[in-house]
Write a structure and sequence with these properties.
Strand content: 5-15%
Distance between the termini: 73 Å
Largest sheet: 5 strands, mixed
Shape: globular
Strand order of the largest sheet: 1-20-19-11-17
Length: 679
């Protein structure tokens, strides 16, 4: 009993110490200049991309990477956390190659991964429409769409791999839409002027995930892959500077488990739920990558958040998530608002000459297919003018009347029927008869753990795939590129780069008795005990919702220096209150969703502060990062390439310390940097 009392006292004192440190930081905040929120570190560079012409770079890297012969692969082990498109495809491919693979996901099945929610399609430079597409054009569109804040070498490789992805998925039986002649069909997506998006009606992500899932299950049956569902990763085990394992919590029994391998792969998705309301599944979180960040992995471009223009508007104060209407709808739907803010008539009663098809008016070359960041800001602007529609004036119309008149209702149903059904079930409105109402919402995060050309983080042996890394999208992701990146990383990139690291293995055996493993488990146990011991008065969700309001108001669609400084102050205050007044019922030795959410929200709070610091330091507008102080006369984003053409790679500064900024300078040799124009 005395041991229990001493443990409780230590936990309580730890909470008090943490609260005092944060309170002091908040008190000192008002006297800080913007540059005083962080410390400068040395520049960082990707040294893995070969110094050859970009079209030869990937082949050169694959050839020069060390290989592991098939007999030796059986002696090497890899842990993969996450079983969405990137994780499932990587596990299946590495298992097929002969490595011993152990995978973890917090869902009850890999099929529940959030990848299923990517509805609209997947890009590939096949040029089936003979409309001028090519690997180089996909590369160019992606760099331009990301507002020249992505790394050329990674983006070009992604464009190259795109043509293989489609063939792989067709071979797996993914039911892509086809034209009358039997060829795979394509449609357009925002930010491009060619048709390169392959799709399976409005459920492309689900069908692609089923393809990766069946490949994964094949390897599970072959016993090359061991699958652990309902397990959440809570810590990385780093031994002699290398990632050698993970600490996971069995979400059913509460038991903490330690698993070891020669390398670890994080494929755990993005962190949009830091905003509370987003299009992400409610379980999506940042914990795996944030735990790695605290262990030494740099976190790159955390403030680069994508706002998706085509979401169902917020409907009330008690909503827990938002629903995406696929960007594919912008192929045939026309976006408009009344010309007058005083016009409150039913949409069907407003004549054509009293409607403002504002995207078609402002951006005639691209019209409704401008990139997501452009379309989102334009929607915000017309709503700020008082011309928004629906409750609170936070909505614009997405109208299919012209498409139905031109193609017929049956054709529209064939292309978008499940999306229309989803909209009708959520809103109670029939989109075939009255226009949809949409408004921008947080959807995707371009930031993530910093990786080199091999997808290896700054912790040797820790690789990061898919949305969890930062590498391919810059300041804005083009539509239909998330599925492309996840599958490219899992099927084609990681299996050709991780072998270069594993060729030095197998490494010395590590088990639960190793001091690094003991320390990692103890850190998790102390954190869990602390959360359960606070017994405050506020629910976890109330903290999450308050954080979400702060992030949306000050680090959302528009940011300013004043707002970001205010956000940092409020987040630090919120952190103090969280660690002194959160209420987590139950115990750690059972199913405890409140405990799961508490750990995730604690990490979101720390991430939110870093996002605001990153946004504050980047005094320019680019892509989805729009600083009010940096815009052109007509309200477009204004970049400052002379100062900010770099990747922000942040090092954890320790408890109560300042994060350290390392810059990766971006050099463009194949695409000319210039202000974007879609007019």
């Amino acid at each position: 009993m005395s041991d229990e009392r001493s443990t409780t006292a230590a936990v309580t004192e730890g909470v008090a110490d943490a609260a005092r440190r944060v309170t002091g930081a908040v008190r000192d905040l008002v006297s800080l200049d913007a540059d005083s929120f962080y410390a400068d570190g040395e520049d960082i560079a990707d040294t893995k991309a070969p110094a050859v012409p970009i079209e030869r770079r990937w082949d050169e890297r694959k050839f020069n990477a060390k290989l592991v012969n098939p007999a030796n692969r059986r002696k090497l082990s890899v842990i993969i956390v996450g079983t969405g498109l990137a994780g499932a495809s990587a596990a299946a491919t590495l298992g097929e190659a002969g490595y011993k693979v152990t995978t973890f996901c917090y869902q009850d099945s890999p099929r529940r991964a959030h990848s299923i929610a990517a509805q609209g399609g997947i890009n590939a430079a096949k040029n089936y429409r003979n409309d001028g597409d090519s690997v180089y054009r996909l590369f160019y569109d992606t760099v331009k769409g990301g507002d020249f804040r992505s790394r050329e070498s990674n983006v070009y490789r992604l464009a190259e791999a795109s043509v293989q992805i489609i063939d792989q998925c067709v071979a797996q039986g993914v039911p892509f839409a086809r034209e009358y002649g039997g060829l795979l069909d394509n449609r357009s997506f925002g930010g491009v002027q060619v048709s390169r998006t392959f799709y399976a009606r409005g459920q492309t992500g689900q069908q692609l995930l089923l393809g990766a899932y069946q490949a994964l299950e094949r390897q599970i049956a072959a016993k090359t892959v061991e699958m652990h569902t309902r397990h959440e990763m809570l810590e990385v085990v780093v031994v002699d500077g290398k990632a050698r394992g993970v600490v996971v919590r069995d979400m059913v029994t509460g038991e903490l488990e330690t698993h070891f391998a020669d390398a670890v792969v994080l494929a755990t998705g993005g962190y949009s739920n830091v905003f509370f309301l987003s299009t992400n599944a409610m379980g999506c979180n940042v914990t795996a990558t944030w735990r790695a960040h605290r262990k030494g992995a740099l976190f790159a471009n955390p403030c680069f958040t994508q706002i998706h223009p085509t979401c169902i508007p917020v409907s009330g104060d008690y909503q827990s998530k938002l629903t995406l209407m696929s960007e594919s709808l912008r192929n045939d739907g026309r976006i408009w608002v009344p010309k007058s803010g005083e016009d409150k008539r039913d949409a069907r009663q407003i004549p054509e000459d009293e409607r403002d098809y504002y995207l078609e008016r402002i951006y005639p070359s691209f019209g409704n297919l401008v990139p997501r960041d452009i379309a989102s800001r334009a929607a915000k602007n017309v709503c700020d003018e008082g011309r928004g529609v629906g409750p609170g004036g936070l909505g614009v119309y997405l109208d299919f009347a012209d498409a139905i008149a031109r193609l017929g209702r049956k054709a529209v149903e064939d292309k978008y029927g499940n999306l229309f059904d989803m909209y009708a079930q959520i809103t109670g409105e029939n989109p075939y008869e009255t226009p949809m109402r949409i408004y921008p919402a947080v959807h995707y995060t371009m930031g993530g753990l910093w990786v080199d050309y091999d997808l290896q983080s700054t912790i040797p042996g820790l690789f990061v795939a898919g949305e969890a890394n930062f590498s391919d999208h810059g300041a804005n992701r083009l539509g239909a590129s998330a599925l492309m990146q996840g599958l490219a990383d899992g099927y084609f990139v990681l299996p050709n780069t991780i072998n270069d690291y594993l060729a030095a293995g197998p490494f010395a055996k590590v088990d639960e008795s190793h001091p690094a493993a003991v320390e990692a488990v103890q850190a998790v146990r102390t954190r869990v005990d602390t959360l359960l011991s606070i017994r405050g008065t506020r629910t976890v969700d109330s903290f999450h919702k308050e954080l979400g309001h702060i992030m949306w108001d000050y680090c959302g669609m528009e940011r300013s220096e004043e707002g970001l400084r205010k956000a940092i102050t409020r987040i630090r205050e919120l952190k103090t209150e969280f660690w002194s007044d959160v209420l987590v019922l139950g115990t750690g030795e059972e199913i405890n969703q409140a405990l799961e959410r508490a750990g995730r929200v604690a990490d979101f709070i720390e991430l939110g502060e870093l996002m605001c610091i990153d946004a504050l330091v980047r005094r320019e507008s680019c892509g989805g990062h729009f600083r009010a102080e940096s815009q052109t006369e007509d309200g477009e984003a204004l970049r400052h390439d002379d100062e900010f053409a770099y990747v922000s790679a942040w090092e954890f500064g320790g408890e109560g310390g300042r994060p350290v900024l390392h810059k990766e300078q971006l050099v463009y040799e194949n695409v000319e940097m210039k202000q974007r124009s879609y007019k």
